[in-house]
Amino acid sequence: MLIIAVGVNHRTAPVEIRERLSFSDHSLETSLARLNSYSAIEGCVILSTCNRTEIYAATRELDEGLNAIWDFLSRKSGVDISEIKNCTYAHTLYDTIRHLFRVAAGLDSMILGETQILGQVRHAYQLACRFGATNRVLNTLFQQAITVGKRVRTETGIDQNAVSISYAAVELAKQQFKDLSGRSVLVIGAGKMSELTARHLVANGVSGVIVSNRSYQRAVNLAAQFNGRAVKFDQLYCYIEEADIIISCTAASHYVVRLNDVAEAIARRQGRELMIIDIAVPRDIDPAVGQLPGVTLYDIDDLQQVVDHNLAQRKKAAVAAESIIEEELDQFMQWLSMQFVVPTIAALKQRGEEIKQKELRRALNRLGDISEHDRKVVSSLANSIVNQLLHVPVTQLKAYALTPEGHLYMKVLQNLFKLEIPGEQSQAGKKPVQGNLATGR
User: Fold this and answer.
1) Is residue 307 part of a domain?
2) Binding region for NADP(+)
3) Inter-axis angle of helices 372-400 and 406-416, nearest 10
4) Fewer CB in 10 Å around end: N or C, the chain?
5) Which neighbouring-strand residues pair with 1?
6) Catalytic residue list
7) Which of 111-115, 322-326, 365-369 tops mean pLDDT?
8) How far, in Å, CA of 120 to CA of 169, rounded?
9) Within a domain: residue 144?
10) Is there a single domain that holds both residue 358 and residue 382?
11) What is the pLDDT of residues 223-241, one digit of tens each?
């Protein structure tokens, strides 16, 4: 049983190709069944996210399995199979397993170490199981990949350092206030960055959200997402006294928060800390505001420094993650290699047993009436000859199974002894999809 993968991501194909190769959850049952109907495919999992589509499959023939997946993707998307091959990447055997482990660990994502991909891998596997599309090898592979993803995050903390501006703002707030529970935020501006930052703050415990924007209706709409309050833009200074955190990101060409107005609000705060995060370019907040007592002011450059530092930390964690992946990969390959050769070894021993029994019966018949002791001696001799004859090829096959060429030695042994492997003939009953796998027609 061989494992292969064919995929497309943001690095290999433009969005117009990726969207045609994506799969929705409600289409997966039919798609998995269709892919499994190819004679070369013995089990499959489809991982489809906003930035990648990957098909993992079990097959007994590498080339046939890859061609089946390419043909399936071509038929699904309507894209010529030659273009499908050009914009996809293919992994086989050892590389497939390493790739999946790296994906689950967040090492192959646009944002290094991102957390969401592990849940997406788990979801894809669970759906494939629900629809009966997997087999024993794929089940073990994906269960191990999920374990690897968890282990990498636990032991390296690769996902603990914020690498986006909005997350960095939250990280700074948590450093200043320790606990954000019960804190309130004043959001100035109702754009995407303001929304993302507010969303992250609320997710981390901020309970009060006040939104002010030049377009009052946009402020109302954003505030509604957080059960917050919208205030008129010309009244925002009245609410500085209430807020613990101010997030500002407008498109203004001048300061929208001025020193004198903030100073008046600070006088009424009775020493309470105020954190201001200015994400705008040009800046919204007069830099002199940061000199007021009890006020901490960060601008976009401060946030970028946090992001750069954290990205460097993630890159360090990624080095440790790669070591974990190699360790887990070796363990999985040992298990998988044994699964490859066990049926062949069993078939070889069965062939030896059949020959032994046949020749033993013939010899005992020729010997005629002999004692029970002599029968045991002859039987022991036959057992010893067969066992010693098979010992070396069995031992060598187990050793070769741990190398990339293991499946080739297994095939040679099967052909030399004309072994019939249970399960391999079962694929003959599968009807291949009509059409030429090489051309997609």
Assistant:
1) no
2) 189-194
3) 140
4) C
5) none
6) 50
7) 322-326
8) 26
9) yes
10) yes
11) 999 999 999 999 988 899 9
